[in-house]
């Protein structure tokens, strides 16, 4: 459904910018229908999880969300689950993919990571405090994110005029920042050789 969404109703259409908010359009109706199908699926997932006996299964993120949620507001829980699926899943999965691929091509780093991981308690109870001790692992995750950001772009609206390294940004501009192209390009205002193609 996420792929379907990306390929269809998520695409921007001229009516999105030409018509004022609230004007009914065919696309708006298709988006509402999609939202209804999506919400139904998320509630079905929640019902499936809460209906299943999990006495001896390990606790997971859903259990934490379930315990934290207000029992009258399953709609908010559904929003959290949706966020996890859409914003949290693919980003994390891609980061882990590249984070495994890069050290696999640099065996000395792979060994160093394994040595670091062996020194700490990674049990369910100990892992959250151990994470703070994994300095090398953190550095590798951050470098992976720098080189292969799973998010390709972010955007900002300039509330006032700016000057970014000699480029004038007028007030009210929408600035799109493609991380993939930015990697290593501007350091201290000086263009630098692009590191992306050399990363692997
Ligand atoms: C490696 C993993 C992740 C990466 C690389 C990533 C990346 C990003 C980026 C680039 C943004 C936009 C930031 C901005 O423009 O200011 C964003 C926003 C967001 N992400 Fe993630 N994300 C990750 C994991 C997650 C997870 C696990 C969740 C939820 C469980 C999540 C939920 C969100 C939400 C809700 C926003 C919107 C925040 C707002 O309202 O401004 N992300 N993420």
Fold and architecture overview:
The chain is mainly alpha-helical and about 200 residues long. It has a single domain, classed as Cytochrome P450 (Cytochrome p450), CATH 1.10.630.10. The protein is built from nine helices and six strands, in the order H-H-H-H-H-H-H-H-E-E-E-E-H-E-E. It has helices spanning about 1-5, 15-20, 25-50, 60-70, 75-105, 105-120, 125-130, 135-145, 180, and strands at about 155, 160-165, 165-170, 175-180, 185, 190. The strands form three sheets. A two-stranded antiparallel ribbon has the order 1-4. A hairpin with a 2-residue loop joins strand 5 and strand 6 (about 190). Helix 3 packs across helix 5 (about 75-105) and helix 5 packs across helix 8. Bound molecules: protoporphyrin IX containing FE (HEM). Protoporphyrin IX containing FE binds near residues 83, 87, 88, 150 and 154. The site of protoporphyrin IX containing FE has 11 residues, from helix 5.
List the helices and strands and how they pair.
Elements: H1 2-7, H2 14-18, H3 26-51, H4 61-68, H5 74-104, H6 107-118, H7 127-130, H8 135-147, E1 153-157, E2 162-164, E3 167-169, E4 174-178, H9 179-182, E5 186-187, E6 190-191
Antiparallel strand pairs: 1-4, 2-3, 5-6
Helix pairs in contact: 3-5, 5-8
The chain binds protoporphyrin IX containing FE.
List its traits.
mainly alpha, Cytochrome p450, 6 strands, 10% strand, disordered C terminus, binds protoporphyrin IX containing FE
By DSSP (H or I, 4+ residues per run), the number of helices equals 9
Q: Give the topology string: H per helix, E per strand.
A: HHHHHHHHEEEEHEE
Query: Could you tell me the number of beta strands?
Result: 6
Average pLDDT across residues? 85
The number of domains is 1
Oligomer: single chain
Structure ligands: protoporphyrin IX containing FE
Derived from helix and strand composition plus strand pairing, the structural class reads mainly alpha
What name goes with the CATH superfamily?
Cytochrome P450
Which word captures the global form? flat
- Please state the second-level CATH architecture: Orthogonal Bundle
CATH topology: Cytochrome p450
């Amino acid at each position: 459904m996420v792929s379907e969404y990306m390929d269809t109703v998520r695409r921007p259409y001229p009516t999105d910018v030409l018509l004022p908010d609230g004007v009914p359009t065919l696309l708006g109706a298709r988006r509402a229908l999609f939202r209804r199908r999506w919400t139904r699926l998320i509630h079905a997932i929640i019902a499936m999880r809460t209906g299943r006996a999990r006495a001896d299964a390990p606790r997971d993120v859903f259990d934490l969300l379930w315990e934290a949620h207000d029992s009258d507001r399953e709609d908010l829980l559904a929003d959290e689950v949706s966020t996890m699926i859409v914003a949290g899943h693919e980003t994390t999965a891609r980061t882990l993919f590249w984070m495994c691929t890069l050290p696999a091509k640099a065996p000395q780093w792979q060994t160093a990571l394994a040595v670091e991981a062996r020194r700490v308690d990674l049990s369910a109870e100990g892992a959250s405090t151990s994470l703070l001790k994994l300095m090398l692992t953190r550095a590798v995750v951050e470098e992976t994110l720098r080189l292969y950001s799973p998010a390709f772009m972010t955007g900002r609206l300039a509330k006032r005029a700016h000057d970014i390294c000699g480029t004038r940004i007028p007030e009210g501009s929408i600035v799109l920042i493609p991380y993939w192209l930015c990697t290593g390009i501007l350091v201290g205002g000086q263009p630098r050789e692009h590191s992306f193609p050399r990363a692997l």
